[in-house]
Design goal:
Mean pLDDT: 96
CATH class of the largest domain: Alpha Beta
Number of domains: 2
Strand order of the largest sheet: 7-11-12-17-16-15-14-13
Strand content: 15-25%
Bound molecules: 4-amino-1,4-dioxobutan-2-aminium adenosine-5'-monophosphate, magnesium ion
Largest sheet: 8 strands, mixed
Shape: globular
Low-confidence stretches: none
Structural class: alpha+beta
């Protein structure tokens, strides 16, 4: 007898066939109707059990959360709400789930409650849908770059460098924290540590990706990155996944073109391949927004919003233009921004980014040519001497989703910058070598994968789009 997934049975509908299916009980009604789900699809399969023909002890073991194997004939459904169902001839209980203690009961649970049950939350409709979309999006990332001839490069997780120069790093050490070896000056002697130097978890694979772009041409990384920033927001994780393409001979314009095409491509993939999940998530979002005041609800439903991104050009605006818009906008004049915009040079906060995207331009925006002193050391200095070839892609509801730049390829300019920022040049000897041997114009960017999953699924909190979120004061599971 053939074993099918719920998805196969619902999509292929082998009517009349004697089949076997495994899954978990979503609900069990009237001692007769089991809604079975195995995670393959958002919809459940109805299994009809003639309780007269089954042992009462067996029926007692069937409750929400129990794992079953059901055997029977697939028939057209007699009832409404589903097109096919199984007339069960045999049921095997793999494992029961005591209704007194199993936390995922068939009722509405808050997302906060489910975060504490992260090991079981993927059994809910919402989380199974989100995680299937997440999986599809990662596949789409690889498909896009592979089809374009990019090579997948694995950047190291443990590194001695601070790519962003922001110092928000998790130390990696095997020294005894209670009595670490000290040097003559009384400081911890890292030369006795595992790697013989100070090391940390990577904040970005960019610098290493640059070395590979300078040999393989076009590469991308897709891996976990770590930031020890104490940000408790709905858009920050201490461990998040980043996609970082790096391209030899690309200038900033080519970089922006690639970012836009890439984003549209992966969202198209999800629109085509995750229809059932997106429809479910769209309804979920509409429901959730009913409890919000009118002005906080989105103008577009989820699927419409994704289509809008795919079908419209992103607006490209310089930082300088953006500052003019922000300086003169109503919320700034009425002092409604938490961080008022007074002058050129100010760093943009998420409230400003979201104003530009959601209220002013009403479409995704790519801001470029930022002031040098609010951006990382490796960005290429413009002729004006005060701005750099940086770009951020800003998205509705999210703010910054991509950060990237054309890289400084001129050795002396880069050395000067490193000096100005008091970065230890010795640590970056290999990075500077790239500018000594066959240097060339090159560019790249980083897409925060979870922020993209948030956007594609309409989930408001980044903790709900990664299986096990790592945030300040929280590393359970
Ligand atoms: O803007 P960031 O810091 O840029 C870089 O790391 C560059 N090295 C990228 C490159 O040019 N190769 O980070 C890139 C993106 C952000 O736009 C954001 O989407 C995401 O990574 N990101 C985070 N996502 C979740 N939690 C955090 N703490 C994040 N920090 C950045
Ligand atoms: Mg950034």
């Amino acid at each position: 007898m053939k074993s099918y997934s719920v998805k196969e049975l619902l999509k292929k509908q082998p009517i009349g066939e004697h089949v076997e299916v495994n899954g978990w009980v979503k609900t069990f009604r009237s001692n007769r109707f089991v809604a079975l789900n195995d995670g393959s699809i958002i919809h459940n399969l109805q299994c009809v059990i003639d309780f007269e023909n089954f042992d009462e002890d067996l029926l007692k073991q069937i409750s929400t959360g129990a794992a079953l194997k059901v055997t029977g004939t697939l028939v057209e459904s007699q009832g409404r709400g589903q097109s096919v169902e199984i007339q069960a001839t045999a049921v095997f209980v793999h494992g029961t789930a005591d209704p007194e203690t199993y936390p995922i009961q068939p009722k509405k649970h808050s997302l906060e409650f489910l975060r504490e049950k992260a090991h079981l939350r993927v059994r809910t409709n919402t989380f199974s849908a989100v995680m299937r979309v997440r999986s599809a999006l990662s596949f789409a990332v690889h498909q896009y770059f592979q089809q374009k001839g990019f090579y997948y490069m694995h950047a190291p997780i443990i590194t001695g460098s601070d790519a962003e120069g922001a110092g928000e790093m998790f130390r990696v050490s095997t020294l005894d924290p209670k009595s670490p070896p000290l040097d003559d000056s009384g400081a911890i002697d890292y030369s006795q540590d595992f790697f013989g130097k100070e090391t940390n978890l990577t904040v970005s694979g960019q610098l290493e990706a640059e070395t590979y772009a300078m040999g393989l041409g076009n590469v991308y990384t897709f891996g976990p990155t770590f930031r020890a920033e104490n940000s408790n927001t709905s858009r920050h994780l201490a461990e998040f996944w980043m996609i970082e393409p790096e391209m030899a001979f690309y200038d900033l314009d080519a970089n922006m073109d690639l970012a836009e095409e890439f984003i549209k491509s992966i969202l198209s993939y999800v629109l085509e391949n995750c229809k059932d999940d997106l429809e479910f998530l769209e309804k979920r979002l509409l429901d959730e927004e009913k409890s919000k005041p009118q002005n906080e609800r989105s103008d577009m439903a989820l699927i419409e919003k994704l289509k809008f991104i795919v079908d419209n050009n992103f607006k490209r605006v310089t930082y300088t233009e953006a500052i003019e818009i922000l300086r003169n906008c109503k919320p700034n004049k009425k002092k409604r921004f938490q961080f008022p915009i007074d002058e050129w040079g100010a760093d943009l906060q998420s409230e400003h980014e979201r104003f530009l995207v959601e209220k002013h331009f009403k479409c995704p925006v790519i801001l470029f040519d930022y002031p040098a002193n609010i951006k990382a050391f490796y960005m290429r200095l413009n002729e004006d001497g005060k701005t750099v070839r940086a770009m951020d892609v800003l998205f509705p509801g999210i703010g910054e989703i991509v950060g990237g730049s054309q890289r400084e390829e001129r050795l002396e300019v880069l050395q000067q910058k490193i000096k100005d920022l008091n970065i230890d040049e010795k640590e970056l000897w290999w990075y500077l070598d790239l500018r000594r041997f066959g240097t060339a114009v090159h560019s790249g960017f980083g897409l925060g994968f979870e922020r993209m999953v948030q956007f594609a699924t309409g989930m408001g909190n980044i903790r709900d789009v990664i299986p096990y979120p790592r945030t300040p004061q929280n590393a359970e599971f």
